[in-house]
Amino acid sequence: MAAETASPSDNEVVKLALEERSSFGLIVERYQEKLSRYVTRLGIKDSDDRDDVLQEVFIKVYRNLNDYDEHYSFSAWIYRIAHNEAISWYRKKKVRPEGNLVVDSEEVLAFLNNNEEDAAVRLDQKINAAYLEDALAKLDPKYQAVLILRYFEHLEYEEISDVLELPTGTVGTLIHRAKKQLREALEKYE
Amino acid sequence: MSDTQKQPNKDLKESVLSRLEKEGIEPRSRLYWLSHEYALWGAWGLAVLCGALALSVASFASLHIGYALYEASHNDFLTFVFDALPYLWLVAFFLLIAVSYFNLRHTKRGYRYPIILVVGSSIGFSVLGGGFLHWLGAGWYFDQMLGEIVPAYQSRAKFEEEIWQKPMAGRLVGKVVQQPEEVDYAAFVDAEGEYWRLNTEELREHDVDLLQSGRKVRILAATSSEFAEGSLYVCAVFPWILDHAPGLKEWRADRAGFIEDVKASKEMIHIIRTPSGEGRPNDIPPPEVMEKVASETSSRCYNLSVFKRARPGIVAE
């Protein structure tokens, strides 16, 4: 009876939400934690600010539900709205985003050990989360965003392309450059 | 637990649903998003189409800026090109490419395409469309129409007319209004309605026929204080070709006509030098001798500054 217990897919929830407003609660439940972590990582540290931003994100998601194309990732679509809302929040506040990773040691370890793509980041495992967070915070916001989405939100290149509205090739280039910059920044801590 | 590590607000779902309810927020209709998307694609198509039109006018204007007779209006080819290039249309074309890039980039999946594809496709479609419109003669038509309805716009025909309506420089545009009553003379009215008495004695037969056809023509003439007021000594006649979308054939014919006129002025010297008129081309003396002869003859066209300027290049061809 697995079919009965399996939770509905994102696409199915979207269809339900379009028919019945209360079903939209499922989307909020499913994504509030991920998006909360993401906007925090983008630097919105204050919980009240974060709640305000998240509420706006979900209101926009609901209002724009018909714009979602089921052929693409819903996750990337909702992350894009959250990303844009966070950027708008920064613009309104006139402050520069400062990354705040909210990482646990496992995540940091996974990131440090990650040797995919060109293995541009070959880091000593002695480097701790605090150093990494500090180094990431000093990166250009566009580099921060790609690294956060790739290594902390675990999105695929195509999804990152959808979130940041960039060509997939550009995402690859940005990740490569971001890792190079990060490596250089971390060398100072060695 | 630090502030940044707090769990997300557990009431978020309730607050979002209650706000949706209270403010009566509904998802925007599918039609809204579709029309938004179609508007962007439509704006892209329109920008590409306008780009094509701009390119067709630019190509028409570039191909018909009077390369054939540039020696007649400018000191050298470079100053002529700088003066005559259709900057307005070239700028319009590149602006429209930027607009089409912006529109395509903002379509639902526009960001996924590499910049080279977005810009390349916009330029590519504009070039294809521009080529097709040029082939149809739309460039000339659009340029002409704008020239008629927008006073500030200088159409190619207006530009050409301005260049050729310079009596003091020996250039005129207009037509013969009266069949000559005396041999080697014609009554001519220029683009500004001024009347002129033209001496046509050194004209080639072909040019005389063209002049006397009564069609609008451009003429190159020698000017001198020796002439009576309102008189000109005509050395070459060219048809006015901007009353339709001219083809390269007419452009080439214009050039060929000019070369013939320059050469004819040289041959005229030779004939003057050998009164019997039996000279053969091989007998044409070297330029320095011809210059001397010219100064001693009554040939005004040989000494026409336009011909003098063009002669070295044309003789070398």
Automatic annotation (TrEMBL), chain A:
Record Gene3D superfamilies: 1.10.1740.10, Winged helix-like DNA-binding domain superfamily/Winged helix DNA-binding domain (1.10.10.10)
Superkingdom of origin organism: Bacteria
Domain RNA polymerase sigma factor 70 region 4 type: 131-182
GO molecular function, one term: DNA binding
Stored InterPro entries: RNA_pol_sigma-70-like, RNA_pol_sigma-70_dom, RNA_pol_sigma70_r2, RNA_pol_sigma70_r4_t2, RNA_pol_sigma_r2, RNA_pol_sigma_r3/r4-like, WH-like_DNA-bd_sf
Keyword terms: Sigma factor, Transcription, Transcription regulation
Any one GO biological process: DNA-templated transcription initiation
Keyword Transcription: yes
Chain ranges of the RNA polymerase sigma-70 region domain: 27-94
PANTHER family, A to Z: RNA POLYMERASE ECF-TYPE SIGMA FACTO (PTHR43133), RNA POLYMERASE SIGMA FACTOR (PTHR43133:SF51)
Family that this chain belongs to: Belongs to the sigma-70 factor family. ECF subfamily.
Protein name: RNA polymerase sigma factor
UniProt source species: Candidatus Kaiserbacteria bacterium RIFCSPHIGHO2_01_FULL_46_22
UniProtKB/TrEMBL annotation, chain B:
Keywords tagged on the record: Membrane, Transmembrane, Transmembrane helix
Bilayer-crossing regions: 38-67, 87-104, 116-142
Name this protein carries in UniProt: Uncharacterized protein
Organism annotation: Candidatus Kaiserbacteria bacterium RIFCSPHIGHO2_01_FULL_46_22
